[in-house]
Amino acid sequence: MRALLLSSPAETHELGRRLGVALPPGACLALSGDLGAGKTALVRGIAEGLGVPSLIQSPTFVLVQIHEGGRLPLWHADLYRLGDASELDELGLDAMAPETVLAIEWASRFPELLPADRLEIRLEDAPRGRRAELSATGARHAALEGLDV
Amino acid sequence: MVVLGIESSCDETAAAVVGPDKVLSDVVHSQQIHADYGGVVPELAARAHVEKLGVVVRAALERASVQRPDAVVATAGPGLIGAVLTGLAWGKALALGWGVPFLGVNHLEGHLLSALLEEEPPTWPFLSLVVSGGHTTLYRCDALGSYVVLGQTVDDAAGEAFDKTARLMGLGYPGGPAIDRLAAQGDRAAVSLPRPDPGALDWSFSGLKTAVRNHVRSPERAADADVCASFQAAVVDCLLDRVVRASEQTGITSLAIAGGVAANSELRDRVSQLPWPTFIPPRARCTDNGAMIANAGRLHLLAGRLDPPDVGARPGWQVGV
Known about the structure:
The structure holds two protein chains of two kinds.
Chain A: E1 2-6, H1 9-22, E2 28-32, H2 39-50, E3 64-67, E4 74-78, E5 101-105, E6 119-126, E7 129-136, H3 139-145
Chain B: E1 3-7, E2 14-19, E3 22-28, H1 31-38, H2 49-64, E4 71-77, H3 81-98, E5 102-106, H4 107-112, E6 126-131, E7 136-143, E8 146-152, H5 158-168, H6 175-183, H7 206-216, H8 224-250, E9 255-258, H9 265-272, E10 278-279, H10 290-302
Parallel strand pairs in B: 1-4, 4-5, 6-9, 9-10
Antiparallel strand pairs in B: 1-2, 2-3, 6-7, 7-8
Helix pairs in contact in B: 1-2, 5-6, 5-7, 5-8, 6-8, 8-9
């Protein structure tokens, strides 16, 4: 586990950007944190790091937003509105190409449905800004914990 | 031309029949509709479109007294790929069976043209503000199929800001109507909230949500009605500020609104007070519905557009960019 202090939204964005540059194909990022913690801001940075040209808007209502045109495709999903685990099928994640980077907001609502090998990113309020915790749950994401930030 | 339209891009399963100058039927799936037209089904998953489509299509045709429409159209995107595919496949199969033309329709174009279903529709060009849980975009509509995005949210949609703010305040879901009701009794000047302006004609609502969060966690927390009124005024101020600036920049003084937030009382009031022709659909026509899809599809069919039988879903289909 790696803990970082983010003192501004710009630093949240920069953490995302560096992740986006370093992510391997097929990476899965499980994001959690309260409303306003900066999950979407982090994904905006990840998209920039991946070179995704399109605007990153919150996927809460549309559930999944697909972004092509970067170094790797980015699927930006949000489990906030899902009522139960069976609704996960409706997101169409089985149609994802294997190299796709999957960033899931509110991932902690259905941890049992997440891929076993993933990078968990928890964002919490801290006295001055946000605290980010990065923990890899498998070999594919282990190197990301040591990201140079 | 009488057209059956099918909508299944996200949460709602809907079908409608639209004929010359009028909506003949407009059905959104509900437990009641299911009981009336499909038998009793205790509980269906939120987006179980395949189990609802037969019911809403049958209801739409029966209520319109139409056995075979002249064409079938369905939402082809943007939306959830599985949800879109289900309605699209259903529509194509019906068109094939009936031997009538089929066309895939853009869900957002459905919204931004829904003002054309009004008795006195706008004339081109007009501005169209699509404002819902998933979208907040201002379009310049120059002609059928010719749209330009003038501004959009750079983070959360306005409807999402309503729902998440309601949740922060413990008001339940859906949050939009709850805030609307409480705000009617509140003082909109009670809580000082920001009017974020990311530049151009864009919106940003993420910081507003955070400002409400900080306020409700502070010892000076105002009464819920006052917080709601202040929040709602901030959102509507932001929405109208960009609309007015867009009008100044384009010279267009004609505005249509659509999307779930277009059902909000304060937005409806303040839009109706603009010194221009404004087009505010009835509330049921603001949220996702089949009539807007049938209408947009019908206009394109009349203009000569047609899709081949193997037309696919386009989950990321945008308009005006």
